[in-house]
Design goal:
By secondary structure, the chain is α/β, with parallel strands linked by helices. The protein folds into 2 domains: about 1-145 and about 310-340, Quinone Oxidoreductase, Chain A, domain 1, CATH 3.90.180.10; about 155-285, 3-Layer(aba) Sandwich (Rossmann fold), CATH 3.40.50.720. Helix content is about 30%, strand content about 25%. The chain is built from 12 helices and 15 strands. Strands 3, 4, 5, 6, 7, 14 and 15 form a 7-stranded mixed sheet that branches. The model has no long low-confidence stretch (mean pLDDT about 95).
């Protein structure tokens, strides 16, 4: 079979590799769709090392084979596999920090999501990492389950209220998903900071208060003006651009919250006025990844069309065209790029 394999920073190849052999508690999945995530690009470039250099995790597919111990799944089931699953038994899991579980990032696909087939093992299955997707949900829609789940967890951590004002910095796929979640929570006063007019156009499908290009105007000043000098209640940083952090801190109100969601490259440092953070009681809330609670919620919201994802797909490539797909994502053209089988 063909699979995209990480070789070294900046080098990945689509190679012929053996089809993974499953054990008694595993399943073999034929990959139908795999979304290209920004962390895939950072892994390829050697800028993301929080987990194994296995690329491709926004996956949907069909079960082709099951191990003898598998009871609740069968050949032909349409599924979403979650690549990282915590143990649910350690100190981190018991205190609600499941994505910090030492086992969380040790679990993954074999050989990765950008492959014709992948092995999904007992560890993930026994801990709820394999979800059946309904017949009315397409494989393309199911490939959004993981990124939406991460956004759902981010909003949980921030504890958004419906009457709050919110700014979203960065309107890529993640920013659009946050926008829809906020609208569904009856948050109506939402400001957008995004340099791409094309991406702002995607956001207009769902509605926001105003959008600003941070390269042409001082977004902090404008948002302060829009909020009568107070600032927004919450800022969601959905971009990996480190400069957005200082913008977020300067545009949030005193006593407000900043959600740091976009993952900057490793060894990124930012100068922050900590005195101002303390005296203004600004809360910095980080959020990374998701658990099975969020993936189940994500599946339901996409299946019920509460979250609309089909209109976000701008590019589709075959597996052998993966370099074109990654280049598309790196250049920032369009919205969501998928590898389809």
């Amino acid at each position: 079979m063909k699979a995209v394999i990480f070789k070294s920073p900046g080098v990945v190849e689509c190679e012929e590799v053996p089809i993974p052999k499953i054990n008694s508690g595993d399943v073999l999945i034929k990959v139908k769709v795999s979304g290209v995530c920004g962390t895939d690009i950072e892994k390829i470039d050697g800028l993301y090392t929080a987990s194994k250099q296995i690329i491709g995790h926004e996956v949907s597919g069909i079960i082709l084979d099951v191990g003898e111990d598998i009871k609740n799944y069968k050949i032909g089931d349409r599924v979403f596999p979650h690549h990282h699953v915590p143990c649910y038994n350690c100190n981190y899991c018991n205190k609600g920090s499941e994505t910090m579980c030492p086992k969380y990032r040790l679990s993954n696909f074999d050989p990765g999501g950008f492959s014709e087939y992948l092995k999904f093992d007992r560890w993930n299955i026994e801990r709820g990492g394999l979800l059946k997707i309904p017949s009315k949900m397409t494989f393309e829609e199911a490939s959004f389950i993981e990124p939406l789940a991460c956004c759902i967890r981010g909003l949980k951590r921030v504890n958004i209220q419906k009457n709050e004002t919110v700014a979203i910095l960065g309107l890529g796929t993640i920013g659009i998903l946050f926008l829809q979640l906020l609208k569904n929570k009856s948050v109506s006063n939402i400001f957008i900071s995004e340099p791409s007019q094309e991406k702002i156009g995607y956001g207009e499908m769902f509605g926001f208060s105003r959008a600003f290009n941070p390269y042409s105007i001082d977004v902090v000043d404008v948002i302060k003006q829009e909020t009568k000098g107070v600032g927004v209640d919450v800022v969601i940083v959905s971009t990996s651009n480190p400069a957005s952090l200082s913008q977020a801190i300067n545009m949030v109100r005193k006593g407000g919250r900043v959600c740091l969601f976009g993952i900057p490259p490793k060894n990124t440092f930012v100068n922050v006025n900590f005195s101002g953070l303390v005296t203004d009681e600004i809360t910095l809330i980080t959020s990374n990844a998701a658990t099975e609670k969020e993936t189940k919620s994500s599946l339901k919201q996409i299946s019920s069309k509460k979250i609309k994802v089909n209109g976000l797909i701008s590019h589709r490539y075959q597996l052998h065209e993966f370099k074109k797909a990654f280049e598309t994502v790196k250049t920032g053209v369009g919205m969501k790029t998928l590898i389809v089988g």
